[in-house]
Amino acid sequence: MSQKPLHPVSSDETSADARTGSDPDVDLQVEVFRTRSRLLAQLVVDEILASEGVVAVLHDRQMHSLPAPLTMAGEIGIAVSEIDREVALSALREAAENGVPLDDGEIVEESVG
Questions:
Q1: Domain for residue 70, yes or no?
Q2: Nearest alpha-carbon partner for 111 in 16, 32, 24
Q3: What's the CA gap between 44 and 32, in Å, rounded?
Q4: Which CATH number is 76's domain given?
Q5: Cβ-contact 30, 89 below 8 angstroms
Q6: pTM of the prediction?
Q7: CB contact at 8 A, 33 and 44
Q8: Residue 81 sits in which domain range?
C-alpha cells in the first residue's frame, strides 16, 4: 500500500530532503533558560513564554533516584524552536527587567552550533 506525499514534487523539482539531506519538518530546539527550580521553570514556560505564543519544552536533567547532595547537581533546561529563540530571549529579558524573579536561573544567550 503506497501513500501519497503531503507535498507533491514535480519531476523538474528536487525535494528539500534531497537538496539538504535532512528532514525539513524536523524542528531544531535550542535552550534559552536553565534553572534548578522546577517552580521557576514552570513559571517561565507557562507565564512568560506562553504569553508570547512560544511553545517550550522542559529538559529535566535532575537525578531524582540519587540521595540528597547529588540530586542538586542537575538542572532543568527550557528549550524552544530555533525559529522562536529571539522572541523567547526578548520575553525573558523583559520579564527580568520588569521584576520577575529569575535570579534562580540563567538566560542562555549564546547559540550553540
A1: yes
A2: 32
A3: 10
A4: 3.30.70.790
A5: no
A6: 0.67
A7: yes
A8: 27-107
Decide if 88 contacts 81 (C-beta within 8 A): no
User: Any alpha helices (H) in 2-78, and if so which ranges?
Assistant: 16-20, 38-43, 68-71
Q: What is the DSSP letter of 77?
A: E
Per-residue CA distances from 104 to 19, 42, 66 (Å) = 44, 13, 22
How far is the C-alpha of 60 from the C-alpha of 58, rounded, in Å?
6
> Which runs of E-coded beta strand occur in 18-93?
29-35, 56-60, 76-81
- Would residue 36 count as lying in a domain? yes
The Cα 90–Cα 65 span in angstroms is 35
At 57-100, the pLDDT tens digits run 988 876 665 554 554 457 889 999 999 999 999 999 999 999 99
Using the structure block, give the residue that is written with the C-alpha cell 507557562. Answer: 46
Radius of gyration, alpha carbons of the chain: 19
Q: 69 burial class (0-12, 13-18, 19+ CB within 10 angstroms)?
A: exposed
The enclosing H or E element of 97 equals helix 85-97
